[in-house]
Amino acid sequence: MTSDQNIIYFVTGNLHKFNEVLDLFNKEKINFLLKQINIETIEIQADSIREVASFKLNSIKGQIKGTYFIEDAGFFVDNPLNGFPGVYSSYVMKTIRNKGIQRLIDDFTKTQAHFTSVIALYFQPLNKNFFFEGNVYGKVSKTIRGSGGFGFDPIFLPNIKPNKTFAELTTTEKNRISHRGQAWKKFLTFLKEIKY
Ligand code: IMP
What we know:
Layout: E1 2-11, H1 15-26, E2 33-37, H2 49-59, E3 64-79, E4 84-86, H3 89-95, H4 97-105, E5 112-123, E6 128-140, E7 156-158, H5 171-177, H6 179-193
Helix pairs in contact: 1-6, 3-4, 5-6
Inosinic acid binds next to strand 3 and helix 3.
């Protein structure tokens, strides 16, 4: 069991995610230290990212002494795939990858997609869970472009910067507009304002 005060543990095995969050964290003056910890979590199949995140957070209860959070995300092709892969994003990334998604949408000129991120926090001083959600909307790129980021980044064109995929942005640029960046801003506001 791990125990430390003023440390917030980000439970993740994904270094890309950790580095994005670290970039955001370092820009703020917060009374906490961010640390990565890799613990096996349980991922259920549910209808929403929020439910998956909630279950994942509860699945590690008792294994870390202190405050910790997990983050769960999904890529939703709203048009023409009615939200697929959504909660199946990890599996789809492992199996058919970006090329497979592109094949599914090949016949369509217009696409709509979004990412959702949910940060699920166990805040030890209040012995309570909190959730922060962010979304970013855009399109699916016809070509796989860019070497930054991870996962579906090379095929996502955000509406706000429609000429570049997420993988063509720097971490700071992606964070400024991304689903995770938005969830993170809500999380930070909470940390700054919470009285305990
Ligand atoms: P999870 O939150 O790690 O379960 O993510 C589900 C899937 O979505 C994984 O295959 C990730 O690679 C992908 N994913 C999560 N966040 C992002 C992102 O910010 N950009 C691109 N793909 C992502």
